[in-house]
Amino acid sequence: MPSKKYDLVVIGSGPAGEKGAAQAAYFGKKVALIEKEPVLGGAAANTGTLPSKTLRESSLFLSGFKQRELQGIRVGIKEKVTIGDFLLRERVIKEAERSRIWENLKRHHVDLYVGTASLVDPHTVSVKPAKSPEVQISAEFVLVATGSSPHRPAEFPFHDPRVYDSDTILTLRELPPTMLVVGGGVIGCEYACMFEALGIDVTLVEGRDRLMGFLDAEISTALRASMEASGIHMLMPDSVESVEPESAAIRVRFKSGAILQTQTILVASGRNGNSDGLGLEKLGIAVSKRGLITVNEHYQTTVPHLYAAGDVIGFPALASTSMEQARIAMVHAFDLKYKSKLPSILPYGIYTIPECSMAGETEETLKEKKIAYVAGKATYGNNARGQIIGDTRGFLKLIFREEDMRLVGVHTIGDQATELVHVGLTALILEAGADLFIQTCFNYPTLHELYKYATYDALGRKAARQRGATA
pTM, whole model, 2 decimals? Predict the structure, then answer.
């Protein structure tokens, strides 16, 4: 039987796959989407972005973190938090997101195929449903949006039900008294914070001496201090040397010589691109040791009509950027005269407790580039809204290019940081300077007032520097 023909075949229904399919279909292209799992949404909807952020909110609510003592008012919380309490909201949100994706594909008349995809030839894709014969479909263009999976280092006994990765942690049967989190990246830090908030004794081990090296050093240092103050034990720099499952606990030996007995291990050691079995190699498309596909600025592989986007191409591997990558790829493929590239500046949101967010340059990158700068800071403790919500340790840091006081970096840690960053992000894209924040009247009381006072601080530092130079 001849294969059914499409303008585009998309492999994967995560953020990149869904938005790439919808973008092409919106402009009248005939699109098929293949998903190997029985549910839509990929890791973002089912094991990663939305579930982890929902669990964070659940941990904050159940632990009473958001019901801090405010001006002498104390709110009681549930004494015993169960795994059912913790996972209930996550399951509701997952189902809602799966339904939203299905409705979006249906609204755009995208044909859905369920099964494992592999490339038969440059324009033909095989779809193999579980325990059923394969079917073949063909297309002018193919978009690979298969996402990623947790990397599983060989030294960890994942056959033991007490050892989890960032996907399987959602299958926890009960909340353990102790947990070792391996990896101080975004995923490891986020989960360490949420489990600590639920009363679990958490230890985090990280091979580097700094959490998330892409963050501005001041933010990274503040995050570590906050995590340690909350009760998280930090082993940095250190790494796991051996893991010995025992009946009562898991015995972990570290390279430093330290030994830990823990009930649970969560391994957050990065992710691998889901490119195995797609048949890319026979088309001459190379993949890295971690399964990542190399693409050009248009998200084309070395086979020009075959595109890839999202986690499967690596950094930054964010849901937001994955969506835009796929849209841009489809605009290029079909010459749609629409958006042609990602914004030059992207925001990063880390949903730890407290949240961190950033956009643009850090002090470290500016020093490397030998660009003179001046930084200004405003704290939540000196902000009326910060006092109202009970967060007095957060702060906003703005970095300006010294010669013209143009904003080049925005960094924040504290409650609502991932929302607060967007004012600075917009200013960065508009190439605005200090005058924007000085001239703007912000609502009172709001955290956004921090922009004005961080700018005043930077201007004051520049003036003091100039006075010192004159003297």
Answer: 0.88
